[in-house]
Write a structure and sequence with these properties.
By secondary structure, this protein is α+β, with helices and mostly antiparallel strands. It has seven helices and 18 strands. The strands form two sheets. Strands 1, 2, 3, 4, 5, 6, 7, 8 and 18 form a nine-stranded antiparallel β-sheet that branches. The protein has a six-stranded mixed beta barrel with strand order 9-10-11-12-15-16.
Length: 344
């Protein structure tokens, strides 16, 4: 199999797949302190067979992107938000957090080291960045690890869902994504592992993914697969679920701000009951990987709630997508501090 290189990649044909770009950042926590990290070449990680990441799920990760602007610059979108969310995830799992400033600096290092893999402006592609924190070292009892590894990989990716801003239909799952007072707010692997079966069943039935209800009452929508959820009302409201078991998405927070400050909408984090879905005119899924996926319909048992025909996207969803991607790719001026230029 021919190894991909920046010279052979067809940028507009990229999917959302792993690519070894050759450069990643690594830092190690030993003897009670984080050691200075550096760029390394080896994509393989060597850890103890007793590592807590393997046995007890002591790990968390993040996902963010770098974007090429029309002027050829490379910029990041709110990386400090990802850094802080990883701190929150690490503290929940009794792992030593990687400091926010060091996290952001490491992201800049990785992007600069992989600048040749940065997709060109206009290709619809971006450089996906995956920070990972895992418990390592020799351990077999249930407890925190003696050592930890923080690493960041980066690779060019295309749209998570082929076709860009293309409507999709979803189905409400019978499975729960997270426990009521568990780790739903943290970006930990266990939450995603528990979603695999539901997602598989949804796709086999012809849907883009599964929608999860609140684990306590099973009456309110919480998340879609690995993404946040939102609806638009005919009263000019942007509403997204609020719950202690929902991941606090950076894309979701950004859309809440843009809806209120750019579109003059009432931005709300609150309950969205399944029985009330027929009261909304638009719906969508949002996250770093997919940005926004418009929802054409949601199936709940024998009931199908339709928002827009399968070939159409609602006007508010279209405008939010235009605003957000415009800021990310440097076509529009965003709020102060939302973008950071990567110096090469």
């Amino acid at each position: 199999m021919t190894k991909l290189t920046p010279e052979t990649i067809q940028w507009d044909q990229l999917g959302f797949n792993y690519i070894d770009t050759g450069k990643r950042f690594r830092a190690y926590y030993r003897d009670g302190a984080w050691q200075e990290g550096k760029i390394e070449d080896d994509r393989y990680i060597k850890i103890s067979e007793g590592a807590t990441a393997l046995h007890y799920g002591q790990q968390c990760f993040e996902g963010l992107k770098a974007y090429r602007t029309k002027e050829g610059k490379i910029q990041l979108f709110r990386p400090e938000q990802n850094a802080q969310r990883m701190v929150d995830s690490a503290e929940r799992l009794l792992m030593p957090p990687y400091p926010v400033e060091d996290f952001v600096a490491a992201v800049h290092q990785v992007v600069a080291a992989n600048a040749d893999w940065m997709p060109p402006y206009g290709s619809g592609a971006s450089l996906y960045i995956r920070p990972l924190l895992i418990g390592s070292g020799d351990n077999i009892g249930v407890g925190p690890a003696p050592e930890y590894l923080f690493t960041i990989m980066a690779m060019p990716v295309g749209p998570y869902f082929k076709g860009g801003l293309k409507p999709a239909k979803f189905i409400i799952s019978d499975f729960d994504r997270a426990a009521p007072r568990g780790t739903g707010r943290q970006k930990v692997g266990g939450n995603y592992a528990s979603s695999l079966l539901a997602g598989k069943k949804a796709k086999e039935a012809g849907y883009a993914d599964a929608i999860y209800l609140d684990p306590e009452t099973h009456t309110k929508i919480e998340e879609i697969g690995s993404s946040n959820f939102f609806v638009i009302s005919d009263n000019n409201e942007f509403i997204t679920p609020k719950s202690p078991s929902i991941l606090p998405g950076i894309t979701k927070r950004s859309l809440l701000y843009l809806a209120e400050h750019e579109l003059g909408m009432k931005a709300i984090e609150g309950d969205i009951y399944v029985k009330d879905l027929d009261q909304f005119v638009e719906a969508g899924s949002t996250g770093t990987a997919a940005v926004i996926t418009p929802i054409t319909s949601i199936t709940a048992g024998d009931t199908v709630y339709t928002f827009y025909p399968e070939d159409q996207v609602g006007p508010v969803t279209q405008e939010l997508y235009r605003l957000l991607t415009g800021i990310q790719y440097g076509d529009l001026q965003g709020p102060e501090g939302w973008v950071q230029e990567v110096k090469l």
